[in-house]
Design brief:
By secondary structure, the chain is mainly alpha-helical. Helices cover about 50% and strands about 0% of the residues. It has three helices and no strands. It is elongated. It starts with about 30 loop residues before the first helix and ends with a helix.
Length: about 90
């Protein structure tokens, strides 16, 4: 699994990526500090296996179109509402 790239154009953990701004007059440059923070958080989440949990949550969100009448989807709805309120 580690030898193949799941997402086209993605790189394995630990490999370097260079971001180029081909139109600096149109788009602001990416903050190197924010990229470093993002990479550190992603690495920690990967090491603790959180990616699989996050994938499951996203799959659940896509699966549910109607809430269960017995309340089984209450926690998922609650998590969605917290995200909406936070943004």
């Amino acid at each position: 699994m580690y030898g193949a790239s799941i997402i086209p154009g993605s790189v394995r953990s630990g490999e370097c990526v260079e971001f180029l701004n081909l139109k600096p007059s149109e788009y602001p440059s990416i903050s190197q500090s924010l990229i470093a923070i993002h990479a550190a958080i992603a690495e920690v989440l990967h090491m603790i296996g959180a990616g699989e949990h996050i994938d499951k949550i996203l799959e659940d969100w896509q699966r549910i179109h109607y809430l269960d009448e017995e309340g089984a989807d209450m926690e998922l709805l609650s998590a969605r509402l917290r995200l909406v309120m936070a943004s």
